[in-house]
């Protein structure tokens, strides 16, 4: 059988992470189909050629439309900024290509709806689509979901989730695309808040029905990156000659959500948590126990069993490196630890398996849309004095185990 031939559109930080996934998965896992890293696409011929050589893509190209039109491409992997997700994903699905799209699915609910609709239509013809909420595939997070589903914590009564980074504390940090609404859709909310929204829905199996939230932009103007000019360009007081641009997205998002079973969940997404580099944590509290995950200790899962005898009660640290734990058997012997990049291999495993089995992978575009609806409701709430706001039309969340 011919390998599944992949075209990756974009080659920034996520391009590097996805390339590692495409390269490693077929080597470490017994995949039902082989994979070929056929072509990477970027706007700049020189930098995309470098990326191809460095990460092992057979070819480099500069026109994604031409690549999508090729009949020797089976999968399109989208790792571009959010403003191009909808156009590329819909074109690829209509051309009959399976699609993996980075999170958040889109920059708006309207785009995400169009993408989910295109994905549903394409699925009728056996074309698969998946969103890159990669943290679902950290073995400890998958195990957390399995344990909640089998009743280890009982009825979920509260969730606390936070994703904290600090890369914007420096006011001299330039105005990158992630700080411009037209490119990124939103700021900390969509970029990292989307992960904890998806993780909460995935781990608990419960949708978020309504939210109340507040967004804040702490540094409102930043130096324009070298070589760029914008009509909103201004000179910052005191900074001689510094060309500045407006930050048009949030730096911090604080919100609460009501889950489908009535439980409350609290969320913090920030790029201003000084000292926190990429600190994602989630704790699920139930009437029989609690589970807690912290990305800075990603091979472990904390479990508190309230049903154990009092004298033995306390958080147990489960080392999630046994061959019986999700995904781990393909890697190293127990205790030899996995890292950030392994989730990207696991994502490839799940997508390729679904394509070979003829099933729909998760997270689906519908699940991506459900996250987009929560993001939109949080923005709406923040605009309206933090009032409780219903999340748009209910969409099934969670799906199959992974
Ligand atoms: C933002 O800094 C970011 O790169 C996110 O976009 C990724 O989704 C996350 O994995 C790490 O942080």
Describe the structure.
- The protein has helices at 13-28, 45-55, 64-69, 85-94, 109-124, 139-149, 181-184, 188-204, 342-357, 365-383, and strands spanning 4-9, 35-41, 59-61, 75-78, 98-102, 129-132, 156-164, 208-216, 221-223, 234-235, 243-246, 252-259, 264-270, 279-286, 289-294, 300-305, 316-319, 389-390.
- It is of the alpha/beta class and 402 residues long.
- Among the domains are: 4-135, Rossmann fold (3-Layer(aba) Sandwich), CATH 3.40.50; 155-287, Dihydrodipicolinate Reductase, domain 2.
- The strands form three sheets. The protein has a nine-stranded mixed sheet.
- The longest helix has 19 residues, at 365-383.
- Residues 229-240 and 393-402 have low confidence and may be disordered.
- It binds alpha-L-sorbopyranose.
- The site of alpha-L-sorbopyranose (SOE) has 5 residues, from helix 8.
SSE blueprint and pairings:
Elements: E1 4-9, H1 13-28, E2 35-41, H2 45-55, E3 59-61, H3 64-69, E4 75-78, H4 85-94, E5 98-102, H5 109-124, E6 129-132, H6 139-149, E7 156-164, H7 181-184, H8 188-204, E8 208-216, E9 221-223, E10 234-235, E11 243-246, E12 252-259, E13 264-270, E14 279-286, E15 289-294, E16 300-305, E17 316-319, H9 342-357, H10 365-383, E18 389-390
Parallel strand pairs: 1-2, 1-4, 2-3, 4-5, 5-6, 7-13
Antiparallel strand pairs: 7-14, 8-12, 8-18, 9-11, 10-11, 12-13, 14-15, 15-16, 16-17
Helix pairs in contact: 1-9, 4-5, 5-10, 6-8, 8-10
The protein binds alpha-L-sorbopyranose (SOE).
Alpha-L-sorbopyranose binds at residues 13, 165, 191-192, 278.
């Amino acid at each position: 059988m011919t390998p599944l031939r992949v075209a990756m559109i974009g080659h920034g930080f996520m391009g590097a992470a996805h390339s590692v996934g495409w390269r490693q998965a077929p080597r470490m896992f017994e995949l039902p189909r082989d994979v070929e890293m056929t072509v990477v696409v970027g706007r700049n011929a020189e930098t995309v050629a470098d990326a191809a050589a460095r990460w092992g893509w057979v070819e480099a190209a500069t026109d994604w439309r031409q690549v999508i039109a090729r009949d020797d491409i089976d999968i399109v992997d989208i790792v571009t900024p959010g403003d191009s997700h909808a156009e590329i994903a819909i074109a690829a699905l209509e051309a009959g290509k399976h699609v993996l799209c980075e999170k958040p699915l889109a920059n708006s609910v309207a785009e995400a709806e169009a993408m989910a609709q295109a994905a549903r239509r394409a699925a009728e013809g056996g074309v698969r689509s998946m969103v890159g909420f990669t943290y679902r595939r950290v073995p400890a997070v998958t195990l957390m979901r399995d344990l909640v589903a089998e009743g280890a914590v009982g009825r979920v009564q509260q969730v606390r989730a936070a994703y904290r980074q600090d890369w914007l504390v420096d006011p001299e940090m330039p105005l990158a695309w992630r700080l411009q609404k037209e490119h990124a859709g939103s700021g900390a909310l969509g970029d990292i808040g989307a992960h904890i929204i998806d993780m909460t829905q995935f781990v608990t199996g419960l949708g978020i029905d309504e939210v109340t939230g507040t967004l804040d932009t702490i540094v409102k103007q930043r130096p324009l990156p070298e070589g760029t000019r914008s009509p909103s360009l201004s000179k910052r007081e005191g900074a001689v000659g510094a060309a500045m641009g407006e930050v048009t997205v949030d730096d911090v998002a604080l919100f609460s959500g009501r889950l489908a079973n009535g439980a409350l969940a609290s969320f913090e997404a920030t790029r201003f948590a000084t000292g926190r580099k990429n600190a994602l944590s989630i704790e699920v509290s139930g009437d029989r126990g609690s589970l807690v995950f912290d990305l800075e200790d990603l091979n472990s899962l904390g479990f508190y069993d309230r049903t154990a005898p009092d004298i033995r009660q306390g958080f147990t640290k489960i080392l999630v490196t046994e061959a019986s734990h999700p995904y781990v058997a393909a890697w190293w012997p127990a205790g030899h630890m996995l890292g950030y990049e392994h989730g990207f291999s696991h994502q490839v495993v799940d997508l390729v398996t679904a394509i070979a089995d003829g099933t729909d992978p998760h997270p689906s575009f519908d699940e991506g849309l459900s996250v987009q609806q929560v993001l939109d409701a949080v923005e709406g709430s923040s605009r309206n004095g933090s009032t409780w706001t219903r999340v748009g039309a209910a969409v099934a969340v969670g799906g199959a185990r992974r």
